[in-house]
Design a protein that fits this description.
By secondary structure, this protein is of the alpha/beta class. It has eleven helices and 16 strands. The chain is globular and about 65 Å long.
């Protein structure tokens, strides 16, 4: 391969100082998000949790734990990771638990949300006999859809997530201390306002007897156009109506939004009705939301097709025909060995990537806030692939 070249001059860090491919998280950007979330907590009175399903790079937990009260998990392994490496409160929710998993979860959880009254009835005696005091709640479905992508809508018709008001009897909440709803995805606080109205209309009768309410995730708090003032007002007004209730938020993306990059290299350039650059990264293996959402990640120095002089289709190295990231244009022609930098690659990448085709996972790096030096904290090889399969 030719020596790496860098045809653009707008990089915020030395892209040659990390392996390729590599996820690179900027601690300065991460702290910027955390400062805003700290302000929201202070002004609203709510507690914010790190949703490990979105960002679980535990090397950064010592920084994040300075700002957030704990973690929220989707099962036994995330719960243990939060307990072992983050500390603070450990919240757990799953659509359903097995008995062996429940035994593990009870070692770590402080809050435990069940998806149905049936799951609560099955495990309430097990919870009662646990050596730790665990506050239990029920996830409910406010039946109010605000998102545009059905794949990410927990309130879609036929949803398996949460209990509808029509399926809830008053005695189903006996022994429970909280309600949990999660209905948003990458949305602003106006969507929360509408959802909160629907939640109170359907479940408000139960709130006087509870201790907490979890507003779930999907709050894009650290996005530039997010209406933080509305969010603070909504929470404060809710707490004024129910002063006995603790309010939790558990955003996944808001913690690591716009804090990280995916550095990759051009391996080859072929032609099929236009130039195609094959990269040492993959949409399906390393950034699956590009295909699932779908969405188009930005590239530093890149633009939409045709906007700049040289347009390329960018694809990965797996055998999937649709392993295509998208079409991008650049000021200068790409060459084998060039490095490209995708932005906003910290969340829902490391936690969702795969070793499909035996393709190796990107390394994981951090940028120091002060020195701006890049530290490689994890690399992956054959053993990581092999140990998953037998």
């Amino acid at each position: 391969m030719a020596e790496a070249t860098y045809p653009f001059d707008a990089y915020p860090f030395d892209i040659g100082a990390c392996p390729s491919p590599a996820y690179v998280v900027d601690d300065a950007l991460l702290r910027r998000n955390l400062e805003l979330l700290k302000e929201v907590q202070a002004r609203s009175g709510a507690k914010i949790l790190l949703a490990l399903k979105g960002f679980a790079m535990w090397d950064a937990f010592p920084l994040i734990s300075q700002y957030l009260v704990g973690t929220t998990s989707s099962g036994q392994d995330e719960a243990r990771l939060g307990f072992d490496h983050f500390g603070g409160e450990v919240h757990v929710y799953s659509p359903a638990f097995t008995a062996p998993e429940m035994d593990v979860v009870l070692r770590y959880a402080d809050h435990l949300s069940f998806n149905s009254p049936g799951q609560w009835r099955r495990f309430r005696d097990t919870v009662a006999s646990a050596p730790r005091n665990i506050s239990c709640g029920l996830r409910v479905n406010p039946e109010h859809s605000t998102g545009e992508v059905a794949l990410y809508d927990p309130c879609a018709p036929g949803s398996r997530l949460g209990t509808r008001a029509a399926n809830l009897a008053p005695d189903d909440l006996d022994g429970l201390e909280g309600l949990h709803f999660h209905a948003l995805c990458e949305q602003n606080s106006d969507a929360l306002e509408a959802t909160l109205d629907a939640f109170e209309a359907r479940f408000g009768q139960y709130l006087p007897q509870l201790r907490w309410v979890n507003f779930g995730g999907g709050h894009h708090i650290t996005r530039g156009d997010y209406d933080v003032e509305r969010l603070v007002r909504l929470i404060r007004d809710f707490k004024a109506r129910y002063p006995h209730l603790e309010v939790y938020l558990e955003p996944g993306e808001a913690i690591a939004l716009n804090t990280g990059y995916l550095v990759c290299s051009v391996l080859d350039i072929v032609d099929n009705d236009g130039p195609i650059a094959i990269l040492d990264t993959s949409a399906t293996a390393h950034m699956p939301d590009v295909l699932e959402m779908p969405y188009r990640p930005e590239i530093i120095g890149g633009a939409k097709p045709g906007e700049k002089a040289h347009t390329y289709r960018l694809g990965g190295t797996t055998c999937l025909a649709g392993d295509v990231i998208g079409d991008y244009s650049f000021d200068a022609p790409l060459a084998i060995g060039d490095r490209l930098v995708f932005t906003d690659m910290a969340h829902y990448t490391m936690v969702k990537n795969t070793t499909f085709n035996g393709i190796r996972l990107p390394s994981i790096c951090r940028i120091d806030e002060t020195s701006r030096e890049i530290r490689t904290i994890k690399t992956f090889g054959y053993v990581d692939y092999m140990q998953r399969l037998s």
